[in-house]
Design goal:
By secondary structure, the chain is of the alpha/beta class. 31% of the residues lie in helices and 21% in strands. Helix 3 (137-145) runs parallel beside helix 4 (168-181) and helix 4 crosses helix 7 (213-230).
Length: 442
């Protein structure tokens, strides 16, 4: 029984709920979902009727975002990143531990980042990853106790000297500690020795050859072996090569606690469409061919890949376009925080995949990955993070309409399906006049 009036009812002829897609009234009280009822049965001080072409869905949870503040706020900052997130239907992000100065490899750095986030103003909720780097094993337990969602490491140079990679032995030592904490470990799984031995050059074909699938395969083998020995929970970030899917699947069958993600650029782009000199397409690992893209979609559909997240990794034009279109010199990262939902939905729709699957991969799945049970779903008790989405409406990507600090995008001019017409963060409009985002702890 409802003891107090609801603050808001969102009435939807189509709502993506944990049990399927159906009409519903979603009632909100004190920032949380209080009622999920039949359409037309709930009353509140404010009622929003969604249009016939709109779907109500939970806010996205993006667990792979490089905000870069403090230290590289000229690359991206919390104010601009979270405004872009809200505009794209993302209501929760988890910030990566590198690219900021200092990197989040101890509690002091974590507190500096939290302070910077609060000072900047947040339009969505924000959690944080810690980092595993050589020499910081004693810092892992304090970071875990301070509420990071887990820790991330690299198996080859990260691109910034403040966040060096770990060796296979250092990975094993880190996993031994993290297994005892019950902490999740994220791994950038490319093998440094394979990459160093590969050719390199300025063209896209050269860059693609310099980060071969064999580098991902070798690194995932190293990770699976270390996880199997330690019993740690591990997660492979931004899988670009479908060659690793069988390794991940086989490891799970043996009881290894391993999950994996991929990203919108690997699901929507192919190497054949990347022009030489167009370094807006550069990301690490790289975009591969169309057959590989199809195999990644199959990996999602069969549950080998668990989630889809952005790997939003922006940089200023002078860094992204370094070397006048030299793929070997330019920064590797694609900014898609505001576009991820439309990108994935456009391709999923073309493949006959329903919006409920997309929500599982981009909302509920990432929330579950990091233990945020109140996020990523429309259910009683969950935060009222909601998106008003028009799946059939199309738009053309205009960089000037993006809220990222630097609106550089390989998607400029591309026509996409799915328009976010409104976002609620705990029942309030986002982005609104006042930043309403909160800091999250595990």
């Amino acid at each position: 029984m409802i003891d107090r009036p609801l603050d808001l009812v969102v009435r939807a002829r189509s709502a993506v709920l944990p049990g399927g897609v159906r009409p519903a009234d979603v009632g909100v009280r004190d920032g949380r979902v209080a009622v999920v009822a039949g359409i037309g049965t709930a009353d509140a001080a404010e009622t929003v009727d969604l249009a016939d072409d709109e779907v109500l869905m939970p806010g996205l949870v993006d667990t792979h975002v490089h905000v870069n503040e403090p230290g590289r706020t000229d690359w991206e900052g919390f104010a601009s990143a979270t405004r872009a997130a809200a505009a794209g239907g993302v209501t929760t992000i988890v910030d990566m531990p590198l690219n900021s100065i200092p990197p989040t490899v101890d509690v002091a750095a974590l507190e500096a980042k939290r302070s910077a986030a609060l000072s900047a103003g947040l339009h969505v909720d924000v959690g944080f990853w810690g980092g595993l780097v050589p020499g910081n094993l004693p810092q892992l337990a304090p970071l875990h106790a301070a509420g990071v969602m887990g820790v991330k490491c690299f198996l080859l140079p990260s691109g910034v000297e403040e966040f060096p990679p770990v060796s296979a032995a250092q990975l094993r030592a880190g996993l031994d500690v993290l297994a005892g904490l019950g902490a999740l470990t994220l791994v950038h799984a490319e093998d440094g020795s394979v990459v160093r031995a590969a050719p390199s050059g300025p063209r896209y074909a050269d860059f693609l050859a310099s980060r071969p699938p064999a580098a991902e395969v070798a690194a995932v083998r190293t990770l699976v072996d270390a996880a199997e020995r330690s019993g740690a929970r591990v997660h492979v970030v931004h899988v670009s090569s479908a060659d690793v899917l069988e390794l991940i699947s086989d490891a799970r069958l043996r009881g290894v606690g391993i999950t994996a993600e991929t990203c919108p650029h690997y699901l929507t782009l192919s190497s054949a469409e990347v022009p030489d000199g167009a370094t807006a397409y550069k990301c690490c690992p790289p975009i591969r061919d169309a057959d590989n893209r199809d195999r990644l979609w199959a990996g999602l559909l069969h549950g080998v890949l668990d989630v889809v997240v952005s790997d939003h990794s922006p940089s200023p034009p002078g860094v992204k376009e370094l070397g006048s279109g030299d793929f070997g010199a330019a920064w590797g990262g694609i900014s898609s925080l505001q576009l991820g939902l439309a990108l994935v939905w456009t391709e999923a729709r073309r493949r006959g995949i329903g919006l409920d699957r997309v929500v599982r991969w981009m909302s509920e799945g990432p929330a579950d990955l990091v233990g945020l049970g109140r996020k990523g779903r429309i259910a009683v008790g969950a935060d009222a993070d909601l998106v008003r989405f028009a799946p059939e409406e199309t738009f053309t990507v205009d960089p000037a309409a993006l809220h990222h600090r630097h609106p550089l995008t390989p998607y400029a001019g591309r026509t996409l399906s799915g328009v976010v017409r409104g976002t609620w963060l705990r029942g309030e409009d986002a982005p609104g006049d006042l930043p309403r985002g909160a800091l999250l702890r595990r």
